[in-house]
Amino acid sequence: MYSRTYTYGTAFTVVVLLIMGGAYMLFRTNEPTPVVETPVVAPPTVPTTPPALRPQIIGTSVEKRAIEAYTYGTGPTHLLFVGGIHGGYEWNSVLLAYTFIDRLEAAPESIPESLTVTIIPALNPDGVFKVTGKDGRFARTDVKVGLDPATIRFNANGIDLNRNFDCKWKPESTWRSKVVSAGSAAFSEPEAAAFRDYVAKINPSGVVFWHSQSNAVYASECTEGILPGTRTLMETYATAAKYPAVDSFDAYPVTGDAEGWLASIGIPAITVELATHETIEWDRNLAGFDAVLGQYRIAK
Ligand SMILES: [Zn+2]
Predict the structure, then answer these.
(1) How many angstroms is it from 103 CA to the middle of ligand 1?
(2) Would you give per-residue pLDDT tens digits along the chain (300 residues)?
(3) CA-to-CA distance for 241 and 233, rounded, in angstroms?
(4) Beta strands in the chain (DSSP E)
């Protein structure tokens, strides 16, 4: 947008200067050849193509890896999609996020006028690195198999990031039958703090987290029950993507989860659990994504 404005401005300036120069020459032809001054059109160092606006770096991990955010559209209603909070254990959620990024890079104009969409492909880049050996984007062939889930799910401090948020936070929480560390305080981890600060900055109208592998879409709540907007978001995504919609995750008690924290500050949030740890279920999630955009496009 800046470059386009700039280009139009530059073109306009050039045209005006050419007209003025032509008029000057017409009226001054009988006079001695004037000293020609080089018109100042533009600083030559300004590029005609904009610098890459994506990705934006919203923070860094414990091991100083970038937490990337890719934003498309400029509308007033902001939607946020997040992969990889559980690192390499759920690398397919990161690959799904990058597949959406590829699609939007190819057609950023596909975002409706009223919306802005941001995708954070990996909120736990250190955990992803343990499995892929790559910073940022990776290919399926980079994925190492057979690693201990407990070592690739957490951040580099050994903390389950989806237990580090400010909703019923406790220093220890659970993952299946295991006790996991939730950090020394809510938002003690740089990844969770970066996410908190980014949410404060963009004030999203809805947030979708991609996880694996429970094959369902879950609502969220903290202490006040499920927000109406969360239920609508869940049903919209689940129906279009053909996942079961589930009000609450009750396989084991969870504290300090990001979705619950968002609920506590009034932001609708859902968890989309892919069916396996290896698949991205592209057609289904594309349908869910498009349905959510359709819902929010007309919601305000
Ligand atoms: Zn997960």
Answers:
(1) 24
(2) 444 444 555 555 544 444 554 444 444 444 555 555 655 555 444 332 233 568 999 999 999 999 999 999 999 999 999 999 999 999 999 999 999 999 999 999 899 999 999 999 999 999 999 999 999 999 999 999 999 998 999 999 999 999 999 999 999 999 999 999 999 999 999 999 999 999 999 999 999 999 999 999 999 999 999 999 999 999 999 999 999 999 988 888 899 999 999 999 999 999 999 999 999 999 999 999 999 999 999 865
(3) 12
(4) 56-60, 66-72, 77-82, 115-120, 172-175, 178-181, 206-212, 216-218, 245-246, 269-274
Q: Does residue 87 contact residue 131 with C-beta atoms inside 8 Å?
A: yes
Ligand 1 centroid – CA 141 distance (Å): 21
pTM of the model: 0.83
Q: Give the closest residue to 161 by CA, choosing from 197, 188, 132.
A: 188
- For the stretch 152-166, what's the b/e string if a residue is b when 16 or more beta carbons lie within 10 angstroms of its beta carbon? bbbbbbebbbbbbbb
Domains of the chain: 53-298 (3.40.630.10)
- With beta carbons less than 8 A apart as the criterion, state whether 120 and 67 touch: yes
Q: Is residue 72 within 8 Å of 116, Cβ to Cβ? A: yes
86 CA distance to ligand 1 centroid (A)? 5
CA–centroid distance, residue 160 to ligand 1 (Å): 9
Count how many Cα atoms sit within 13 Å of the Cα of residue 72 in the half-sphere of its side chain: 18
From CA 273, how far away is CA 132, in angstroms rounded? 21
